Structures are given as C-alpha cells and as structure tokens.
Amino acid sequence: MKEQIAHLISIQNDYIVKQSDDELLLIKLKNNVADFNQYLVLNEVGAFIWLRLSPTDDLKSICEKTSREFECTPNEIEGEVAEFLKKLHQFTIN
Questions:
Q1: Residue 82 · residue 1 · CB < 8 Å
Q2: CA-to-CA distance for 77 and 65, rounded, in angstroms?
Q3: Is the dihedral of CA 8, 11, 12, 15 positive or negative?
Q4: Along the 94 residues of the chain, how does pLDDT read in single tens digits?
Q5: Dihedral sign, Cα of residue 35, residue 41, residue 45, residue 48
Q6: Which of 17, 6, 22 is nearest to 57 (CA)?
C-alpha cells in the first residue's frame, strides 16, 4: 500500500484538478494537453483524500485525516479507503 500511495503522490502533477460542488474531476495530461478520454470524477471523500495526500502518508494517516473530517473512526473506514486507493492507483497506471 505504501508504494501505491507514493505513486499517487508522484503523479499528482500529471492531472488537472477541477472542483465542482462536492466532486473533483481529475483529467490526465498528455504532453501538457488535457486528455478528456481519460478522466475520473471523485466524490467528496475521494476528493478530500486526493487533495490531502502528502509524502509522509501511509494508510493509517490517511484514515486518521479522513475520519476527523467525516466524523467516523479510522477503523470504520480503513477497508474502504484501502479499496479506493487501490482503484485510484489502477486508474493512474492504465
């Protein structure tokens, strides 16, 4: 999981980020041009996680930050956060 998180942090500048209400649109850049064939819409929780990823993060710290924001416990959301990060990683490597 640590490698997946590190990868996500390393590629953040490869995406244009557009906020729309509680959603976040991630648009892949190819040769400094937006590729509208490869984009992803994140809900409020996914947007929160993407915008707050930092080089010191691991699954535990991401769950702690997210749980404080959305009033739940880190244990309650750990599985969902891990699954989200795996799917986001898969999206970014394709």
A1: yes
A2: 11
A3: negative
A4: 999 999 999 999 999 999 988 899 999 998 888 888 888 999 999 999 999 999 999 999 999 999 999 999 999 999 999 999 999 999 998 7
A5: positive
A6: 6
pTM for the full predicted model: 0.90
Range list of H helices, the chain:
2-10, 44-51, 59-70, 74-93
CA dist 20 → 29, 44, 68, 69, 86 (Å): 19, 10, 23, 19, 24
Sheet (strand 23-30) strand order: 15-20, 23-30, 33-42
* Alpha carbon distance 90, 94 (integer Å): 6
Distance of CA 12 to the CA centre of its chain: 9
